[in-house]
Amino acid sequence: SKATVSVLNCDFASCTPQALRMLSQADSKAAASPLAWLKSGTSFAYCQTASVAIKVTVYPTERIRLLMQTQHTNSTFKGTSFGSLRATVRHMVAEGATAPWRGLTPSLVRWFPSQSIILFLKDNLNGHFPTYSKNENYAKWMGTKVGAGAATGVINALVWAYPFDVVRQHLATKNSGSWKNATSDIYSKFGMRGFYRGFVMDAPGLAIFRGVQLGGWDLMKEHYGSQWQEMGTTARFFHGQMVSLLGSVSSYPCDTIRRNLIGYDKHASYGEVFRTGIQNAGGVRRFFYAGFTARVLSSFVNGALLEGFDEYKRTAH
Q: Which of 36-45, 127-136, 154-163 is least confident?
């Protein structure tokens, strides 16, 4: 350490008191380091636990959204109206007490590691993008932030999250019973490729959503500068919600198309899904944004997660 180098490079008699103080301070910092990491790890665990608790609480609105979003091509509930939140809620209540949480298990398996991967990967990818001055080239500076967020979302989906999301949707929108039955049904019909159905449309959607959400979050922090910490947790949370909802609005049509493709019981093209969905929904907007109200209601976990991870980083450093 620097303290040890100072001891070796000076006269022992004259420097001993000062050197001992330097070594003592260095040892104190080293001793405190594990405690600091424990504290930061505990903070992150609290953040993740809180986000999972919120996820479980709002999951019924997630299932409502999936039913409404895929109603125009879903043959399982043919003849059932999911045209409004009230109608969809009535249908779920009639299914039984546990129906609102159908598909929750694969959703949590996907969610818990996925959010950690996204948030840590985003910070690492930022370092691999070119560095631009905000004042000299704002467009390129903003592009690197959005680009890092977009790459993060696509990589996470490819290596971890997407297959679990396909199984979750199958459970939520089909009468498949158990996770095992849903997995077997997907594999028997489509093979391993079945767990990545719709990914071609999901990739640009994820790039848009994560680019706007994560890139927008970084842009906001740098825009406010020192004032960011003075805002308070609640204000930062609502800023996180704002960029998350903006990302959802921008990417929702891509999500609708790929979810309807996943819901098909046979091989189908994106063009077929698009035409059938618009025809059955009665218009492009009604098809693209079916269930979006429920998406807004279930999105409060996003702001909490962004602010919670930043709090973890502040504690860790």
A: 36-45
Three-state secondary structure string covering the chain: CHHHHHHHCCCHHHHHHHHHHHHHHHHHHHHHHHHHHHHHHHHHHHHHHHHHHHHHHHHHHHHHHHHHHCCCCCCCCCCCCCCCHHHHHHHHHHHCCCHHHCCHHHHHHHHHHHHHHHHHHHHHHHCCCCCCCCCCCHHHHHHHHHHHHHHHHHHHHHHHHHHHHHHHHHHHHCCCCCHHHHHHHHHHHHHHHHHHCCHHHHHHHHHHHHHHHHHHHHHHHHHHCCHHHHCCHHHHHHHHHHHHHHHHHHHHHHHHHHHHHHHCCCCCCHHHHHHHHHHHHCCHHHHHCCCHHHHHHCCHHHHHHHHHHHHHHHHHC
Highest mean pLDDT among 47-56, 72-81, 89-98: 89-98
CA distance 187 to 165: 15
Answer for the pair 134, 141: CB distance below 8 angstroms, yes or no: yes
pLDDT on residue 37? 45
Tokens representing 201 are 């449309």
pLDDT above 60 for 10: no
Predicted confidence (pLDDT) per residue in 299-316, tens digit: 777 877 787 777 766 665
Q: Quick check: 22 and 3 in contact, CB under 8 A?
A: yes
Nearest CA to 34 out of 316, 308, 310 is that of 316
- Residues 103 and 171: their CA atoms lie apart, in Å, by 5
pTM: 0.78
